[in-house]
Amino acid sequence: MHVSRPAKKQRRRDKPVQQQDVADGSSSGVQCATVDGPRSPAESDMWPDLILESLERQGLLGNFVDAVTQGIHFSSDYSGIGTAEEAARCLCLAAEAATQRLCGKLPYLYVQRSGDKEAECRTVLLASSRKGGLGAPKCVFGDIGERCNKDIWNKVAEEIDRIHNSEVTSFCYKHGGQCPVYPVSLQSDDQDSGPAASACKEEAGCEGTSNQAGSPALKLHVAGFNCYDWSSMGSRRGWFGPSTLPFVQWLSERLQFEEDIVVGENTLNFDVATLEEMTAHQFDLECLNVSPTLMGEPVERRRLYICMLRKGKRRWRHELLRQGLGETWQEVFEAVFQRNIVMTAADKFRAPALGVKNYIAKLAEQQHLPEKTRSGKDWSCFQAVSRAVRNKIQAHQEELERKLLSADLDSGLAATADDPLELRHWTSNVAQQPHFMGPVRGNVPAMLQHTNLWIFGKRRLALPMEHLEIQGWNIYGNFDNPYRSNIFEVETECTAKWLVLSLLFYWLQQKMLQHEREAARLRAL
């Protein structure tokens, strides 16, 4: 994969950092905002206030206030550990002052249900549900496949297998975007409904669809539906992959449940044209290409957000296009929310020193190392990891030196891999090969799976909780910050911190160890 040279070295902390695309290192072209983004992690923690500030600056805050004071009935599928629910909670908290000032009312948020296929994610969702409070789901569902009629599910699965084994398979893979996918409902008239179908937490009112008929509240559904079959790093099987059946079930429910607004998230490769064709009679659909970099965060996670408005209930405000904010909704979104990046990549990793020390000690313990080095010092992170991980870190370090040397020759600037002012901009996913996904300048790649981030400016690996902070969770913020993610303070069978550590990342570490052992076994043959 070609990697273009990094931007020129930047010495001043208050100078906006050039944005980089994680995939190829090229400039993203979104560096023209007149407003700077957060300058510190503490300012980044206040992102809900920045969102409302952006709306008010463009005269749009009143619309948001009207919506949240009428109420939001929220549901989600493919919920993960509840990121969308957490964002809704924080935005409603931020809106309280504005709503009281503008209309004397308070925002209202009712999270009807969440759900996820992964048991680890459901554990976190259930803990949030038990604790209750703003943003907590009333009900937690399991695998969306459990809501499907099994006979129809099996028939469709057999049909997909038949297509895979047919002579036209290669044609379909090559031209999959042009192959028709029919919006059939996988539900049948005799299917169970309500808690008996797939609810993990059985409770009155725990149903698949909203029971708030006639309410003036905005009915909002959010889903980050499976992107493995669409991702360039996944299977690339499109509509012929295993995620199609759950997606069709999800889509059939959207056509049935009649939410006002549906927001779906996927990779940029997703076949939006087919989805738009399937829902043309029910929804007006628009797409936004968004990454946290747009809002001034040095974090890259470029995703496609599919916004569907129910016809006859909600409409796009086309007068905004006529007011000069932009010619497309993408341009309008950027005009409202775009901010310059000021923080460096290293700023996003703020685990307390004791937490870092304990994490490195745990790594050393896993390698059966003594508590201290021979000289009586604590182990460094580089020393505490396995030999295989050290080799990977070294390979990425050499790739960084190669990139810096190439940039120096072209620009005439002197930058070395030992320069702390330069290193604070660089991170690398050492779980990947350096020639495929090497060191990245400016923005941190925000992924959970197959990720082991090395922070060059801090000379250590990212802690598991720091990975979640990169995803947007406020874990290390001040305790008096209203937007601090309190789900990780829930007392369950084990503390929430170790819950996330052990459940979300343990299996990733085990997979990496298995790969290392297998490689060692093959070398020994």
From TrEMBL:
Gene3D superfamilies hit by this protein: Vaccinia Virus protein VP39 (3.40.50.150)
Domain of life, per lineage: Eukaryota
Bias (Polar residues) ranges: 17-31
Disordered as annotated region, ranges: 1-45
Stated name of the protein: Uncharacterized protein
Biased composition (Basic residues): 1-14
